[in-house]
Amino acid sequence: MDKYYMGIDVGSVSTNIILMDNQMRVHYKKYLRTQGKPIEKLKEGIKMIVEEIGEVEILGVGATGSGRYLANVIVGADIVKNEITAHAVAGLNFNKNVRTIIEIGGQDSKIIIIRDGIVVDFAMNTVCAAGTGSFLDRQAARLGIDISDFGSLALKSNNPVRIAGRCAVFAESDMIHKQQLGHNQSDIARGLCDALVRNYLSNVGKGKEILEPILFQGGVAANVGIKKAFEETLGKEVIIPENYDVMGAIGAAILAKEEMSKKSKTKFRGFEIHNMDYKVNGFECNGCSNRCEIVEIRDETKILARYGDKCGKWSNFIDNENIKLA
User: Fold this and answer.
1) Which helix or strand (DSSP H or E) is residue 123 part of?
2) Nearest to 9 by CA among 69, 51, 58
3) Could you tell me the strand order of the sheet in which 118-125 lies?
4) Using an 8 Å Cβ cutoff, are 164 and 137 in contact?
5) Which domains does the chain have, with CATH numbers?
6) The pTM is what?
7) Other C-beta atoms lying within 10 Å of the C-beta of residue 247
8) Tell me: the pLDDT tens digits for 163-190?
């Protein structure tokens, strides 16, 4: 039976699962749209592994992403790490000399500054949609083109229009105005790519020294128009890793491999978890003025986890499970 380490990255837009061998080669990857149903997508992803490649032995599991604690509860993780750490580990595995990682996903974007193999600085943008993949998705739909054709269309532009990109609302209204003026689609698409890159560099990359080698990770790295806009604006080469879309999950799997060198048995709950029935409830804690929103997950018999509190009143029993959280 084949033996693999599993990496899971649960985000607001996508849920990614990969299987990696002892030589850190990716043998399987699955990119699923989360669609507001992370538990169902996790169960679906686990089920698809069995259906597509058969029974395998899982040596260890790592979880990352905004839904990493949820993934830990449902699947059973040996290590849980934040997205910055996971993307940095994956980037360094791909290119040990990397000094800058640009990561743009569906709902947020990040920059990670690495020097001599160590993360020395980072920044995240989780507020403005104008620097994310969902913004491009919406504008592609408004232009009546498939998002997969957006980048190649932008490369055909000979006279890109300037679109105000500091805010998603202003960018959208400015794009509509440019359409009404009669600018062609390729020039508008290129203008949107340039606007996203300007937004990213002025918000996320502000004050950061962007040095080569530069890796571009995340789903938006598939857009050749964005890659070209970054290269022209920075005047530097931007490298896209082979598995750019699942680098967070790869980093989680690498971290799981490192963690399992100190342990004898994984906490993976088994492939049969796709048959389990999970219920999620939310409630507000009135123990102090923070009034935290607590998320509670149950299976058929017991409470599996509670999280969302700032003080640990509800989630402490997870922290006591000997799992490394960061």
Assistant:
1) strand 118-125
2) 69
3) 118-125, 109-115, 100-104, 214-217, 238-239
4) no
5) 3-86+248-275+312-325 (3.30.420.40), 96-239 (3.30.420.40)
6) 0.85
7) 30
8) 776 665 666 777 777 777 777 888 888 8
